[in-house]
């Protein structure tokens, strides 16, 4: 939710969308594990739009988690 994102991430809301979602902008070091872990903790409640390298990294981790729990 917006409140949770604003509480845990220092950034700003760039746009609010008609469906109630929003675009939130933050900056952090690309290889910083703590920030990456924090993004992962939001699960499917967030979508990384850019940069593409971070989007790809999120996709790879999601795939690794999915493979781990695949029966």
State the end-to-end distance: 31 Å
Placed side by side, the strands forming the largest sheet appear as 1-2
The helix tally amounts to 3
Tell me roughly what share of residues is in helical segments.
Answer: 40-55%
Total beta-strand segments:
2
Largest sheet features: 2 strands, antiparallel
Strand-pairing-aware structural class: alpha+beta
Radius of gyration: 13 Å
Beta-sheet strand percentage? Answer: 5-15%
Molecular structure report:
With 71 residues, the chain is of the alpha+beta class. It is built from 3 helices and 2 strands, in the order H-E-E-H-H. The chain has a two-stranded antiparallel ribbon with strand order 1-2. The longest helix is centred in the last third of the chain and has 18 residues, at 52-69.
Question: Which terms summarize this structure?
Answer:
71 residues, two-stranded antiparallel sheet
Quick overview of this protein structure:
Helices cover 48% and strands 13% of the residues.
Secondary-structure blueprint:
Layout: H1 2-8, E1 12-16, E2 22-25, H2 33-41, H3 52-69
Antiparallel strand pairs: 1-2
């Amino acid at each position: 939710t917006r409140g949770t994102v604003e509480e845990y991430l220092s950034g700003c809301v760039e746009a609010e969308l008609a469906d109630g979602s929003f675009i939130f902008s933050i900056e952090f070091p690309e290889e910083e594990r703590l920030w990456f872990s924090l993004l992962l903790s939001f699960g499917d409640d967030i979508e990384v739009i850019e940069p593409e390298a971070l989007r790809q990294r999120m996709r790879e981790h999601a795939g690794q988690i999915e493979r781990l729990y695949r029966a």
